[in-house]
Specification:
The chain is of the alpha+beta class. It has 2 domains: 3-41, no CATH class; 50-141, no CATH class. Helices cover 45% and strands 20% of the residues. It is built from 6 helices and 4 strands, in the order αααββαααββ. The protein has helices at 3-13, 19-32, 38-41, 74-84, 89-101, 113-123, and strands at residues 50-57, 66-73, 127-131, 135-141. Strands 2-1-4-3 form a 4-stranded antiparallel β-sheet. A hairpin with a 3-residue loop joins strand 3 (127-131) and strand 4. Helix 1 (3-13) packs antiparallel against helix 2 (19-32) and helix 4 (74-84) packs antiparallel against helix 6 (113-123). The protein starts with a helix and ends with a strand.
Amino acid sequence: MNEQRRQILQMLAEGKITADEAERLIGALERARPESTPAAETHRRPRPRYLRVVVHASDGSADGPTRINIRVPLQLLRAGVRLTSLLPPQALVRLNAELDKAGVPIDLTELKPQHIEELIEQLGDVVVDVDETDTKVQVFCE
């Protein structure tokens, strides 16, 4: 609590001002507060709704440059996690083995809905840019 707010509350406690006056003074303090205050810093960004993958490649083919623009709803990830809970354990073991053979070492038995929510929350901070001579790849959330 800052000093000015403490003084207002002290005046209220001593009966020097009414509750309405204290409320107006505190409101005025909050309106006068600069944008860089901790209250402004705790204002959250909107949750990301899509995972976007954009690829621009000039591979020298006769068909021209390759352009890929994929927008995956994050709700699809949530639904997929919920669906894994419906799969029998034997199917998950086989699926994990096939994923591992394909070079995707993910254990689907450990994937829980609360984990995907934590992942999606952190995805808002992820931006991946790959710039090569003839290729540009971007992965980000929006």
